[in-house]
Amino acid sequence: MNMDDLDNKERENVQINVVDVIPIIEDTNDDILKHHKGIYWRLLFLNLVILWAYQSLISAQNYYLKFFKNDHLDFWGTVSAGSAMFFLHVIQLYFGVYKYGFTKRVVPGFIGYIIIAILVMAFKNKIILIIAFASVGGINTITESPVYGIAGLFITGAFTQAVQVGNGLAGVLNVSANTIIRLIVLLVHSHIDQDQLSFYIFMSVLIILCFIAIYVYYGLIRIPPVNIRINQQMASFRQEKLACTIQLDFIENQLSFWALTKILKIHLFVQFYVLFITLLLWPGIPCGASNNGWFDNVGKVWWCSPFVIGTYNLGDLIGRTLAIKVHKYFSSNTCLVCSILRTLFILIIFYRHHINNIFLLILITFMGITNGLLATVTFMVRPQTIIGVNNCERAAYLMTAALYFGIAAGSIVAATLSLTHVV
C-alpha cells in the first residue's frame, strides 16, 4: 500500500468521525420562540407530576394520624425520601447513569409511581409506607434530574423556572385536591372509613396523572429544539464511550464536575442551605405545635394538612413564580446573604407552643416564599463561564444534588431532634 492510499484512508476515517459528531446548537430566537410555550408547559407538567407523588405522601397526614398516630411518619417519611433522593442521585452521577439517556429514566420512573400507589392502597402498614416514601424519593431523582437536565440543555433560564414552578404548583394543587376529596367524602355516607376512602381516591389521582405524564413526555422529546439537543447529548456520550479520534474537548470545552463545583460553589451552598432550613422546620415541627382557637377543637384534624402543608406550598409557589420577574436583581452574593438570614426561622422551634396559630401560618408562608424564590433564582442565574450544552446539563445535575442533600440533611436533623425529645 502506497503513501497516497494511506493518506486517503486516514482522511476517510477522520470524515467518518466528523459526520458522527452533531455540532453544538446555540439558542436562537427563531429556534426557541416558536416552541417556547410547548416546551415550557410540558416541563412544568412533568415536574408537577413527579413532585405530586412525593406531595401525595406528605399531604396524607390525616391518614397517618388516624392509623399510625405514634409512628412519627411526618418525620420518618421525609427522612427516608430525602436520603433516597440524595444517595441515588450521587450514584447516578458517579456511575454516569445520566449518559444512558432521558427516556430510560423518565418513563420507568412514572411506572414506578403507579406501582407504589397501588401498594400503599393494598397494604395498610407503616413499614410499607416508609418504604414507599424512600421509593418515591429514589424514583424522584431518577425522573426529576432528567427533567432538570432537559431544561439545562437551553441557555435560557425560563425552562428551568418552568420545572421549579411545576415543583411549587404540585404542592398547592396536591394539598388542595386532598382537602377537596376529604370534604366530599365527609358528605358521602360510606361503609369505608372516611380517611381511608379519601386516601384511596387521592392515590388513584396519582395513577391517572402518571399515565398522562408519559404521554406528555413523548410529546416533549418530539419537539424539534428538544430533540436536536437530546440527540447532540447522546452523540457526545457515544463519542466518549467509543473513544473516537476526535476529542470532545475539540467540540466544546467540557468541564469536570470538580471544575463546575468550584464555579458554582455559592449557588450549590445556597441551594443546599435553603432546603436544609426548610426541611429542618417543615412539616413535622409546626405540625406538632400547640393548637389554639378553632384548631384546638374541630379544626385539629385539619391543622397539619391542609393548613401547615398548604400555606408553605402556597408561599413556595409564589416565590418560584416571582423568580422569573425579579431574578435579575439577585446576584450570587445576594442569594447567599438571604439564605443565611433564613436561619432566623429556627426561632419557630422555640416559640411554636407560645404563638398564635395564625401567626405561625404566616411565618410558614413567608418561609415558603423565600424557599421558592432563592431555590429558583440560583437555578436560573447560571455563571457566564459555563457554556456548552454538556456543561449546562452537568451543572443542572450538580445543582439538583445540592437540592437533594439539603432535603436529606434537614429532614435527618429534624427527625433526630424529635426522637431525642429536643423539640
Automatic annotation (TrEMBL):
The chain crosses the membrane at residues 39-55, 75-98, 110-134, 172-192, 198-220, 266-285, 329-351, 358-381, 401-422. GO terms for cellular component: plasma membrane. GO terms for molecular function: nucleoside transmembrane transporter activity. It comes from the Eukaryota. Its main location: membrane. The keyword Membrane applies. It is found in: Membrane. SUPFAM superfamilies: MFS general substrate transporter. It is a multi-pass membrane protein. The keyword Amino-acid biosynthesis does not apply. Keywords: Membrane, Transmembrane, Transmembrane helix, Transport. Belongs to the SLC29A/ENT transporter (TC 2.A.57) family. PANTHER family: EQUILIBRATIVE NUCLEOSIDE TRANSPORTER, EQUILIBRATIVE NUCLEOSIDE TRANSPORTER 4. This is Uncharacterized protein. It comes from Rotaria sordida.
